[in-house]
Amino acid sequence: NAQEEARCLIELALYLVDLGRPEAATRVQEAAALSRQTGDVANEARGLYVAGFVAYRTGHAADSRAYAQAALALCRRLGDREGESFALRLAGMAAEDAGETLSYLQQALVVAEAVGCAEVIWPCHNNLVFLYGLLGLFGRARFHADIALDLARRSHAGLWLPHILGNLASNHLESGRLD
Question: Which terminus of the chain has a lower count of CB atoms within 10 Å, N or C?
Fold first, then answer.
């Protein structure tokens, strides 16, 4: 069935982007077309989010922002709070300046915490570690690192621990607290 095929294409796109394969964008476009044809608005919103994620991971921030906004609008229309939290985080990741990034990440955290979406909560904290480190706000970065590490450990997201610890270490290097 076309709806299931669209869902599978989205999952395939996520897998392909993790492998750095350019055809991820094509699979998402196919999924979006199928979702629109079948009237599956929820899957269309997910497809827009994944298209934005693919664009972000392939260095197309402007496209990522556009997809994130479109996904956000659909998720809000559907009342999909979890999807909204994903779209807000993506908008923050692809934002053009630190203030905009901070605003989106804080909104994503509020929504994700309200619905208990660990898949967004700890990555938002990790994004805030990176952002606050860039801004030289190392105390805030450390605060969010502690939360991100704890949540990642508890949610069995162990593969992300080196990434979080890398952000934390770069903050320590930057602040002069580590040689």
Answer: C
Q: Is pLDDT at 88 greater than 90 in this prediction?
A: yes
Output the 3-class SS for 131-160. HHHHCCCHHHHHHHHHHHHHHHHHCCCHHH
Residue 139 identity:
G
Task: Tell me if 130 sits within 8 A of 107, measured CB to CB.
Answer: no
Predicted pLDDT at 18: 80
* Cα–Cα dist 149/164, whole Å: 7
79: DSSP letter: T
Amino acid at the residue 6:
A
Q: What is the pLDDT of residue 115?
A: 96
